[in-house]
Structure formats: C-alpha cells, structure tokens
Amino acid sequence: MKDQLLAISGKPGLFRLIGQGRGMLIVETLDAQKKRLTAGARDRVTSLNDVSMYTDDEDKPLMEVFESISQKYEGKTVDLDLKKATPAQLADFMAGVLPDYDRDRVYNNDIKKLIQWYNILIQNGYTEFVDAEAEETAETTEA
User: Contact 70/130 with Cβ under 8 angstroms?
Assistant: First the structure.
C-alpha cells in the first residue's frame, strides 16, 4: 500500500495510485474530495517509500520518520500551526522525532512538508507506516 502513496511535484497534497494508462498514471487525492487526476511523463512523481530524510549518519526512510512522529503524538495529528511556526519551533519538533537529523541539509520547508504529509495521512486513516516484519528484521540486524 505504501508504494501507492505518491507526491507530485507542483501539486499540493498527497495522492494514491489508482491505475496506469498509456504514458500516464491515474491518481486520486488523499482528501475528502477523492478527485482523480492524471500524471503524465513530464510530472515528477515520487513514491513516499522512496523518500528519506538526511541524518548525521545514514538517511532515514520517510516512513520510519512518520512512525516516530506517530509514536510521539500517539497516532494523532501534529497541532503545530505551520504558518506561524518559528524556525526554533520547527527545529524543536524535528529534534523530538529525529534527534540526529542533519541541521544543515533539512530546511524549514522540508519540516513543514513532513508535518503536512503526516497530518494528511493520519486524517485519511493511514496509521501503519512501518511493517512489523520489516521493523523486527531491522532490530535483529542492529543487535
């Protein structure tokens, strides 16, 4: 299911892959409207599974960052007002969910987009960000 969650450059919000046509993808918005659109070859479409956040060591997959936010906020949306949030508030939020994030390469707009995407997913019933099997495998290899 996570492979079907998409971001399209230049279009706000997140999308779910519905199907494929000739040289295009058919996507649906992840909001109450469920509006269907097409994404052509010129659109830059990215699966959320392929996105990661910069850290001081290795890049952290976005789904693991979402899982960390979900644990901190107990599966509820983040109540930070993104239009009025100061850079210090955004840095505090990020340090709380991903303490070793790279402060030089993760910009305030990246943090805002992370929060927006997380809130969209939570509001639309997505609560499982990391597969339990994948999480157990990661813990076993770290030990």
Answer: no
Domains and CATH numbers, the chain: 2-48 (2.30.30.730), 51-138 (1.10.10.1650)
DSSP string, the chain: -GGGEEEETTS-S-EEEEEEETTEEEEEESSTT--EEEE-TTS-EEEGGG-EE-BSSS-EEHHHHHHHHHHHTTTSPP---TTT--HHHHHHHHHHH-TTB-TTTS-HHHHHHHHHHHHHHHHTT----S-HHHHHHHHHHH-
pTM of structure: 0.85
* pLDDT tens for each residue of 60-97: 999 999 999 999 999 999 999 999 999 999 999 999 99
Burial (Cβ within 10 Å: 0-12, 13-18, ≥19) of residue 2: middle
